[in-house]
Amino acid sequence: MEEVICFSPAKINLGLEILGVREDGYHELVTLYQSIDLCDKIIFKVRTDGHILLTGNDPLVAWNKTNLVFRAAEILKQKTGARLGAEILVEKNIPAGRGLGGGSSNAAATLLTLNRLWDIGYGPEELFALAAELGSDVSFFLIGGLCLGLGRGERILPLEEPTRWWVVLILPDFSVSTALAYQEYDLLERSLTSTNKESKIIQFLEAKDISLIRQFKNDLEAVAFKIYPQLAEIKQEINSSGAELSLMSGSGSAVFGLYMQEDLAREAAARLGEKYRTILVATVSREEYRRKLGTGASPNW
Ligand code: C5P
């Protein structure tokens, strides 16, 4: 039986601006997603009996029907009536609950790969609809590279990509629940008197001025830093190491530094690595992203 190996990259959010709460309870966002070279490996094998079997090597992740990979396979089967099944093995490198989108990336890779292995022939419209049902940032992982995210984060616009950046990633030993972070944000936001809703991300896209990235914010930081003051400390340390930008990714807990120069990034990673679990990675372009997903998954759109 055919076997396909995919590499499923993580993301960071180069900025995350919350514009308000929507009627459905979700938050209206302006965010910049960027793929990074920290990947899970996923092995897919087709099964003719129609069963979906999922296993993974991270004991902190639930490898059952609640897992986004399983749900992605099942939703694809339900919607299309596909008769084939799959055996899916996930080797995790992207830690869960750190705002790096590992589960969402795995889910998008599953949609793309099974779409091909099961010979379904879905195009972008159908796959984006399924991705949005699975989670707010699954859609981004159908595309990868650098993208603007709007709406809940599921409306994706691929952007022209600057040169490769270096990313120093600090991985705290605790995870943050995204749902809880947004709930806490609502409570905190109510107590704030002034809000500045002018989007730095939109300004950056309009002016095409790369220096504006230094002003990017993650509106979920205030909440996370209140609960975990050590995150603010990490951000400060990264800031003083020559990073262009230092920010928490998504709802945390990972905090990253973005560097234009490799040597600065290496120095910072070595220094921070003495205190924290630290990884040095590069950004991944859309083209590289497709290559990592592999010929079995890469969309031709
Ligand atoms: O869409 P996803 O399942 O990834 O979102 C997890 C939780 O994060 C949601 O249940 C919701 O509470 C919150 N969320 C939000 N606004 C967004 C994205 C997520 O309130 N734009």
The CATH class label is Alpha Beta
Chemical compounds bound to the protein:
cytidine-5'-monophosphate
CATH architecture assignment name: 2-Layer Sandwich
Q: What best-fitting shape do the alpha-carbon axes yield?
A: globular
- pLDDT average, as an integer? 95
Stated plainly, the CATH topology is called: Ribosomal Protein S5, domain 2
The end-to-end span amounts to: 27 Å
State the domain count.
Answer: 1
Radius of gyration: 19 Å
Strand content: 25-35%
Count all strands and give the number: 10
Number of helices: 9
Indicate the structural class: alpha+beta
* Regions with little confidence, pLDDT below 50 for 5+ residues: none
SSE pattern: EEEHEHHEEEHHHHEEHEH
Indicate the percent of residues in helices. Answer: 25-40%
Main beta sheet, described? 6 strands, mixed
Give a short overview.
With 301 residues, this protein is of the alpha+beta class. The chain contains 9 helices and 10 strands.
Keywords:
alpha+beta, 9 helices, binds cytidine-5'-monophosphate, 301 residues, Ribosomal Protein S5, domain 2
